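B., you asked whether I could sanity-check this one before it goes into the benchmark set. Here's the sequence:
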Amino acid sequence: MLSYGVGVSGLARYACGRLFYPACAGILLILMVIGFLPFYLGGKAYGGHDLPHPIQTLTLVHGVGMTAWVLLFQIQTLLMATGRHEFHKMLGGVSAFLALILIFVGWRMAIESTLISPPDLRIAGLLTRQFMIVPVFNNLAFAALILAGLSLRSHPQAHRPLMLLATLATLSAAISRIDFITMLYQGTVWQRLFGPFFGMLVLGGVFLGASWLVNRRLDYWYAGGYAVLIGGAALAIALARTPFWDAIARWLLD
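And here's what the prediction gave me:
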């Protein structure tokens, strides 16, 4: 009876382990839809405003590209969970190509959206040029994690958590647009420390805890990448208010 119980418990943990990444991808997909619901329902920006005309096409391309990325990530996790490794590898090239497009488009979005915004506009407590560090950091984090994940694609124990973290990093914009989440930390020390990254970081911590519960061990690849995201986000928000970043922002916008 004891061995039977142990066997059932081990089988349950194995099943949960296989479903962990599809479940995380599903959560990210749901949060993306909620955060960008005005965009999906009526092609609107946050708050129901019209998309800025000068960057309307760029915004549409970025929105469609990000949607495609999260959907593709969901498909890739399901393919691995069901043992369809060959299809997963076939779509790997599509993922790499799409990632390159998103990095380029994301960079242009960071620049162009700053250029058309009033200099004294405040977003999450940051002035326009200060806030530009948020999409710049998101883009750099996504690029670095994707590069690391693709270079380690032959090592699933590293590849999977890095790709999850890369996708998570891109969704801080969606999560920070979900009002019932941001109201929980708006005006607190957490917003001052991490700005609009905080919701994304909390979700990353939830994923880390869930991984430990499922696998009964710490995922060192995920934990390491997550720690870098935390440190990078805090550094970005601190740097945003300095003359050093202001000089960088002016140079990027010239």
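One thing to flag: The beta strands are 122-123, 126-127. Otherwise nothing jumped out at me.
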